[in-house]
Amino acid sequence: MLRAAHGDPRAAVELASVLSEPQLTGLEPLPAEPATLAPALLRVHRGEVRALPEDTRRLLLLAAADQHPIATRAFLRAVTAGRLDTRPLDDAEAAGLAHATAGGIVFRDPWTRIAAYETASAEDRREAHHLLARVLCGEGESPRRSWHRGAAALGPSRRLAAELRAAADAARGAGEPALACALAERAATLSPEPRDRARLFARAAADAWHSGDGDRARRLVAHTDDDALGGLLALRAGNATEAFDALLTATVRLAGDEARKDRPDAAVHLLARATEAAIYTGDLRRCREAAAVADRLGIAVPGTLGALAAAFEGRYDDARDALQATAGRCGPGGDPTLLIHSGIAALMLGDHTGAATATVRAAAAARSRGDAVTVPQAMEFRAYADFWTGRPRAAEAGALEALRQAHATGQDNGACHLQAALALFAAVAGDEDVCRERAEAARSYALARGLGLPAALSLFALAFLDLSTGRFAASGARLRALAGFGPGHGHRAIRHLATPLYVEAAVHTGDTRVAVAAHADYDHWARTVRSPDDLALSARCRALLATGEDAVEHYRTALDLHAVGTREFERARTELLFGAALRRLRRRTEARDRLHSALEAFEHFGSPHCAARARGELRALGEPAAQANGADDLAARLTAQQLMIARMAAEGATNREIASRLLLSPRTIDHHLRGVFARLDIRSRIELVRLLGEDRE
């Protein structure tokens, strides 16, 4: 809404009052015409512009045509070429509507600019565009010159449509999808041929999508019958199973289109997107179906597709080979989508450093191409790599930024996945309210759209929260439910990830029969991919299921493997469990060392529940609480989320502003601040400012 209202809260309030229920819930795109968006506000602005002298209005029209929807930066040259007198701008400045600068005209707000353009006659607007087109003759300015020529057209023109189409191609190649979208859309409106119009609208919709304007893309795709683009939009903001079906159908049709045989990469990309839909749903049948289509058409697709199908069927050797091949294709400057698949493959192999490299390169490649919509997709998976490799605050900050970008670009399904990831991070940080709020929001959205991955991840987050707070029976029940959920409700990859947690919960509740079988499958995978972290967790499971000296040896094996792995948080949890086992065996000195090491790591991670368990074990050894606490700084006393909120509050942000920035409710922020005050033993924000100032010093 803010994008449609040009960031003006007055227009946003007016827009909200006229939207239909499907528009309010995001099922239909917002209206496009300014007169529909904020008619009352625009009416007032038009009156102000009409009150100005004619020469002033002409200059404002020229400036408005130069700035939107494409910034061409040709106003001053046009003024010189048209031999226009700029003194009448004094009247606009006196009225507070605009003022002149060395770079051109600055309007009071976007709606004043819109009013300046719309109050002019059609003839005057065409004249302004002709003048701007005439002066845009520099190097690299031809796409913008074509735009103004198209904007000045009286009606359909095959010649102008062709010129604009070529200009759109040039802009697209230069990494300017927003400009390409405007040019292709204008070419479509000027094209006299219905078939050409549909094709150009499809190109414009794709460009709008890549520029991050999802609403515009949805409006434009309504003028086409493009299954591929419809499937892509459904993948990012609709039902994942419907998206898969549409993308697979489009792949088959494109591969059989003789006119497009020279573009084999297009079919590869469509099947890659279908792969993502299958990953989101967690549906083995769809994975097999897509793999069969790839084989039949002779299309080489990201190995994550075949790997998922193989892993789901227990063919772990085949899965490993496919994942290793995909993870190896992560060189700089590559295709962002394929780099994201490399990152996903690396994550599945337990190579978190490789995953971080691939996803960072994917985001960089997307930015260099102006592909705003792909950046948060890369950041989705970068957050996992940061978290597991011991950078929890970086993971949380990155996931929050990706969540904002996902919402801004209309990728609600990606936002759902990020909400689930943030629920997991909150569980680790001990933020129960945030964990439950995010998990509930993500799971509710995911179940309505067949998104098995975030639905399962949300349940996993809640199970981890239960486990870390000693609710072992509740944790085990959630994880058993997760194992039984089918496509759209659960996900085998998350079930696999949760196995070490399930074994731990089962041991505490004495129900190890199913846990033994689950561990056997997990161990099979760990030995196949040879990931040090997976092997370490498998050894930890073996230790939990053993007793006495056998358990000690398995714990030692686990820690040796953790030493060459990257999952620092899991290493700390292994040390906690090992320290507790050593305490029960009355090996006090080694138990104390392990527990102190675990406590230090948990304080670094900002995981108070796990830290509390370590302190409890140390107290059982006779350690005084102060000695167990370590450095008593703010980072140790607050969770990561509390510390972030405290800093924002100390900087003067209101609860509502903090809630907006973190995409949480004001009530949750209020609860967190009360917790901050209690933990720091203070009563006001003034004391908080003082404490944070001392902490920085």
From TrEMBL:
Coiled coil: none annotated. InterPro entries: Sig_transdc_resp-reg_C-effctor, Tscrpt_reg_LuxR_C, WalR-like, WH-like_DNA-bd_sf. GO terms for biological process: regulation of DNA-templated transcription. The keyword DNA-binding applies. Keywords: DNA-binding. Residues 631-696 form the HTH luxR-type domain. One of its GO terms (molecular function) is DNA binding. PANTHER family: TRANSCRIPTIONAL REGULATORY PROTEIN DESR (PTHR43214:SF42), TWO-COMPONENT RESPONSE REGULATOR (PTHR43214). This is LuxR C-terminal-related transcriptional regulator.
